[in-house]
Amino acid sequence: KAGVTQTPxxxxxxxxxxxxxxxxxxxxxxxxxxxxxxxxxxxxxxxEYFSETQRNKGNFPGxxxxxxxxxxxxxxxxxxxxxxxxxxxxxxxxPLGYGYTFGSGTRLTVV
Amino acid sequence: DAxxxxxxxxxxxxxxxxxxxxxxSTISGNEYVYWYRxxxxxxxxxxxxxxxxxxxxxxxxxxxxxxxxxxxxxxxHATLRDTAVxxxxxxxxxxxxxxxxxxxxxxxx
Lengths: 111, 109
Hints:
heterodimer; A: mainly beta; 54% strand; globular; B: mainly beta; 5-stranded mixed sheet; 4-stranded antiparallel sheet; 9 strands; 0% helix; 43% strand
């Protein structure tokens, strides 16, 4: 079966812009989590959605937001981009909220 | 914060068994231990998980001590493709998976 699909794979944005990243989970998986990975901070938890509701949230500013649709697909949005938002953004899906399968990520570069 | 501690890095000769330790002294009775690995520039990959019994799958074996305060991931015959960062994780009460720094495993030819 298809894995977790993240689009786009690469993205370059300018400071101040906003960006939307997409994640399609494995069919049947209702939980989707998002992580930010930078060389300095490692993998940091952003938020988790389960059945269209945000179930958990990490320690990120309000510029980072997300949502989940009825088909379990999820999007995350970052507004007013800063240079420090340059990172690999990873999405993971799970059928029950654990045992996650990760996508290949979206590499965002803010210039 | 991550609830586990792991060595920063380890070396292992190709073909030998790689034994990666993890301490999780504050683990609760019903919390699982999960192992993931991340090969450079890829998303983390699930390896194995366990509660109290030892577990084995096609990728690795997981040995959990009787008091459950530590565990060891064993890659029986390490290859160069096993070079990666290995994460030992105990999910939070709300099933949130928090990654620590992990162990950078170098397989030496």
